[in-house]
Amino acid sequence: MPQPTVAIVGRPNVGKSTLFNRLVGKRVALVDDRPGVTRDRREGEGKLLGLEFKVIDTAGFEDEDPDSLPGRMRAQTEAAVRDADVALFLIDGREGLTPLDEEIGRWLRGEDTPVVVAANKAEGQAGETGRLEAFALGLGEPFALSAEHGEGLVDLFEALRPFVEREDDEDEAAEDEEGGPLKLAIVGRPNAGKSTLVNKILGEERMITGPEAGITRDSISLDWQWTDPKGETHAVRLVDTAGLRKRAKVDDKLERLSVLDTKRSIDHAEVVVLLLDATRGLEVQDLKIASQVIEEGRALMIAVNKWDVAENASSLFNGIKAALEEGLSQLKGVPVLTVSAQTGKGIDTLIGAALELREGWSRRVSTGELNRWFERAVETNPPPAPGGKRIKLRYITQVKSRPPSFVVFGTRVDQLPKSYERYLLNSMRRDLKLGPVPLRLTMRAPKNPFDDKRS
Question: Where, by residue number, does GTP 2 bind (predicted)?
């Protein structure tokens, strides 16, 4: 399915190229105070709060002879609008509506392409008069925007969303999940058995092991093929890392570099296995490592090593799970498995669980399913009304996966208590079957200069 297309149109020098550069994320189009810098249509890959679309920067629309250069530029602009899914009509909010703006408006009303209107150069309240004048164009409600300073992007998102959002999220999710081997990092305190476990997984003495703590200094990446019980083969990239001690005990320069290398490995992993030593149980340093993994947005699982020599195994396992529930309040239900790096018991279960965890971490929920869930969640437990003023939550969108990240749009969202955000996150994990993976939830409100007056 072709990407949706947004054509930016307007008279010369209203900031079309500046907005184009902001949407594509780099200075591609030339920008200058002189009008008429852009002549040909320029295309780029636009991104805005998770929306992805093709964006076209067009030449300034001028009323000139069709055979002149400005006339030929105008023909290019007209063609771009006819081919687009939506036209973004920019006016200069500071200058207000001009006769040429009105002429462009008349032309756009005669086209079949949907149009949204933005009053650009509207930093603060600078363009409010121009925005109000733009109602006279008869093209719907204009919104304020500052392409140069990045203000009004939430309103731009809301205006473009109905025309460029696609429901083909399943293809994107498949692309995320099938993007390469499972990147699996094994972390933990020194001497937990990380290198021994890697050797057992690979079936060879690939890593140096021994009773001394801290033998591994560099993070070692190893490619491997795992065959599941059904006979299907999965590519895995294993990363063995240096042990992480308490920061106060890290005084050697080389060890500090090893710690930084381990942290980089966490950043680049998809799933991180925190390996515990069953003979020592769960310690405070383990919880700190686990919190770091979650904060980095990686999928986390706990593996308790040396299970073949553990004493009071049932009591130990339940104690670890209880301590995790209390110590990792930001993420409940982290998988806990038992393994033996010496005998290899539990390794297949570990790899299978890691692949399943990555699936939830990579998942993209379709727009329809997400908003149906959101409506039910808000209806079941409406947000509070602090000071008697209602918090209105409009809709939610997923802006990325790996980890799943969402933006909720509404009014007075800055007053929404953290407890309600936790309610949404917990409901999302349960109802959308995202599993025990880190989720990102951001609250956004469109900038409206009249909000305070309505309060």
Answer: 188-195, 240-244, 305-308
User: What pLDDT digit, counting tens, does each position of 155-186 carry?
Assistant: 899 899 889 876 544 444 444 444 589 999 88
The label of the residue with tokens 């009004």 reads 152
Binding residues for GTP: 10-17, 57-61, 120-123, 188-195, 240-244, 305-308
CA distances (Å), 222 to each of 72, 199, 232, 236, 239, in order? 58, 11, 20, 8, 6
Q: Rounded to the nearest 10 degrees, what angle do helices 418-431 and 367-380 cross at? A: 130
Q: Which residue has the tokens 């001690």?
A: 245
E strands, 308-451, in order: 336-338, 392-400, 405-411, 440-444
What phi and psi, each to the nearest 5 degrees, are found at residue 242?
-70, 150
Separation between Cα atoms, residue 361 and residue 341, nearest integer Å: 26
- What is the rounded distance in angstroms from the CA atom of residue 190 to the CA atom of residue 380? 47
> How many Å apart are CA 49 and CA 377, to the nearest integer?
23
Q: How far apart are CA 395 and CA 410, in angstroms?
A: 7
| Relative orientation angle of helices 313-327 and 284-295, to the nearest 10 degrees | 50
The tally of CA atoms less than 13 A away on the side-chain side of residue 227 is: 2
Name the binding residues: 10-17, 57-61, 120-123, 188-195, 240-244, 305-308
Hey, what domains does the chain have and what are their CATH numbers? 5-166 (3.40.50.300), 175-361 (3.40.50.300), 367-454 (3.30.300.20)
Nearest to 80 by CA among 37, 103, 113, 47: 113
Instruction: Summarize pLDDT for 122-141 with one digit per residue, the tens.
Output: 987 778 899 999 999 999 89
